[in-house]
Amino acid sequence: MVGAKENKKSNFKDIINAIGLPTLIIGAFWIIILIIGGTIGISMNTLMSDTIKRAGMNGILVLAMVPSIQSGTGPNFALPVGIVCGLFAMVWAIEFDFVGFGWLGVSIILAIIFAVIAGYLYGKLLNAVKGSEMTIATYTGFSISAFMCLAWLMIPFKNRKMGWFMGKGLRETIQLDALGGDKILSNLWTFNIGGDKGLIIPTGMLLVFFLCCVIVWLYFRSKSGIAISAGGINPRFAQASGININRNRVKANVLSTVLGAIGIIVYSQGYGYVQLYNAPLLMAFPAVAAVLIGGATASRAKVSHVIIGVLIFQGLLTSALPVANQLFEGTDLSEILRMIIQNGIILYALTQVKGGGK
Amino acid sequence: MSNLLSLKNVSKEYSGNKVLKDINIELNKGEILALIGENGAGKSTLMNILFGMPVIHSTGGFDGKIELEGQEVSIKSPHAAMELGIGMVHQEFMLIPGFTITENIKLNREITKPNIVSRVLGKRLESLDVKSMNEDARKALDILDMNIDEFLPVAGLPVGHMQFIEIAREIDKTGIKILVFDEPTAVLAETEAKNLLDAIRKLSKQGIGIIFISHRLDEIIDVADKVTILRDGEHVVTKDIKDTSAVEIAQLMVGRKITIERSGNCDKDACDETILSINNLHVAMPGERVKGIDLDVKKGEIIGIGGLAGQGKLGIANGLMGIYPSRGEVVFNGKSLALNDPRGAIQSGLAFVSEDRKGVGLLLDESIEGNIAFSAMQIRNDFLIELGPIRLKDSAKIRSHGKKMISDLDIRCTSSLQKAGSLSGGNQQKVCVARALTLNPTLLLVSEPTRGIDIGAKKLVLDLLKKLNEEYGMTIVMTSSELAELRSICDRIVIICEGKVEGVLAPDAEDAQFGLMMSGSQHLIEGSES
């Protein structure tokens, strides 16, 4: 009997180890919030629909963490680099008066071109500052956002859909419904489960997210991807096997930046607006938090961590707010609560970062 | 002469592994005792015990007694050792470069005088009495005949001077009785070393007992009164220097270890074809610097590279493989080998099993089969499915190759998917060898193949190397700190000393010859013969 009990205990421990403590705690917290929400009469369908929508919007941004973590440069805190590439591409596509799927396609193609160039330069920068990648990356993200604030103002865009009603420069938020870009992917092949008030599945957006996941998953099973992972886990091993680690780090960060750029396009169409100026500034943190909550460490990340992490993180964020608003009725705490909850989760996730290497 | 220190029946084991067995050492006042032994003979463990280092007490203490001036003492911490008057001069200098000589000598033992603030806030805020500190420092430096100003900063002083400041710090401690020198001349130039030996003699005349750890036989003969030889944790003998000779010390140090007996014939058909020719190779590997080596490796032989730790034997293979910066000329298989290019080295047919198994040799979190296939996949494009420009790994091929290697090399594991990090040392080593073999190399470089693995596994690994050589005609360059192991399978053994080739010996050469070459004291017998 005692043996069986011990066995059970170790099984329990194994399960915790396999899933990861942060994932379990945040997951459990989410479920508790959902139960409270259910008892005070918030529609579960709405909560779950929102969760899926937000997970789909943020998914590719979180996926961008995988290549950089695997290559040993840590979570890509410089995600704003990729994001501004995506924004820049979308703005140009609007400037050229593309609409609908034409706009989407041109945006993505331009975004990839910009992101490859920016990612290459950013990778070179990271190779010059080995050992303090995370800090440098954070400030690279901040700097590029600030720099682009100037660009949004100074570049003489002509298209009326993006300008202020008077004066020069681009608007803070550009509505996409004017050019048929609002929820263009989210509404593609969308369907409801359980009638009109049921669960809404944004099929098109989810398919794009899963397609990106499959590409990244396959890439890390290719010769090049395996070399990148090896260089990330054990640089000396990789070097002794004749692998050019610096080149691989650049490759991985190009991929990460491209994913960031595509990610913001998918995000913007789901949101219905292109947000410029300071919007990209803090977008890296929720993405980093999501992948860490999904079970990744600062030196190891898998596609499964992305999917689990983005669901739990966005699920908690979207569920906690209506529930909190309901509980503290009459007060206007929602924005403050959002900040507390989101940053609290990020802080918790970052304390769970396990250093790279040994 | 009165008895100062005696160690009685000192034994120590680390998790069941006896590293010291019944050591008895006596040290008198004003006597210089030399301690000599190969790497792993137990010198450092013995000194750790004497200094009460935490590593000893956290692993269950030791057996036996330590007596200081006839009184049994228990040394529980380095601080206790210091209070009892035991000091040590370290091999690496523990000095603060920005501080003056006085400040370094007096560090944490400053002489202070009270001031207004300290009267209120306590002793920690008293001001320094620089004048008396300088006087003390001067006194200590004078004992060592150092006419250097005590107020100079340490940064920028020559290495020799730094060593003396370390000594000055020790003798400035009140009541210093025993001073341990750990390889003090290793970093010094010849004249500096000579000055140091003079200083040691001078200190001993003042009644300080000195333990002198070195592998330089000529220095030991020169300075010591008696010599204690350790081998494999055993106290071989303690002799008066006047009753012995360098040759005898060398012989006793190496000894004949009956671990792995050489089987089969020694005189294999020697091949005349040179497969690897190394000319004036320099490798900047920290701690294992190679300073100009010339070596020819014949096709189909097992050549051993031996020598003491830190002499540069490990640097050779690492340099050839491009892991550490190197220069020189290397011709391999009739073609010139580009140095500092790991990929080129592997492509030309070299394969390397690193001495740092866990650091360089394996991806610990990766499966066994993944480890085995890794290099071949990256360098030779094996184990890949090509879909246009995309090359994905061929899991089926990796699996079947992994299984073949596991059965060929007899790797004990639950499956080929087991993580390499969870294997035992010997099996990890076999995975490393399997990875190298998967590259189909013409020449295999193996460094410290048996480090950290148990004796049964050692034999398996060595047998494996021998089999590769005999059955497949693979040329093997094996680097090892364990002479016995080199002698058991190599066709000839190159001894490296101070980054250079000291000599080449047959595996059945005499112990004394090995000992002398390893300590770089060959000239001692050549000198006496002529």
From TrEMBL, chain A:
Keywords: Cell membrane, Membrane, Transmembrane, Transmembrane helix. The keyword Amino-acid biosynthesis does not apply. One of its GO terms (molecular function) is transmembrane transporter activity. The chain crosses the membrane at residues 15-40, 76-94, 100-122, 134-155, 199-220, 252-270, 276-294, 306-324. InterPro entries: ABC_transp_permease. It is a multi-pass membrane protein. Its main location: membrane. It comes from the Bacteria. The keyword Transmembrane helix applies. It is found in: Cell membrane. One of its GO terms (cellular component) is plasma membrane. This is ABC transporter permease.
TrEMBL record, chain B:
InterPro entries: AAA+_ATPase (IPR003593), ABC_carbohydrate_import_ATPase (IPR050107), ABC_transporter-like_ATP-bd (IPR003439), ABC_transporter-like_CS (IPR017871), P-loop_NTPase (IPR027417). One of its GO terms (molecular function) is ATP hydrolysis activity. PANTHER family: CARBOHYDRATE TRANSPORT ATP-BINDING PROTEIN MG119-RELATED, GUANOSINE IMPORT ATP-BINDING PROTEIN NUPO. Residues 5-523 form the ABC transporter domain. This is Sugar ABC transporter ATP-binding protein. SUPFAM superfamilies: P-loop containing nucleoside triphosphate hydrolases. Keywords: ATP-binding, Nucleotide-binding. Coiled coil: none annotated. It comes from the Bacteria.
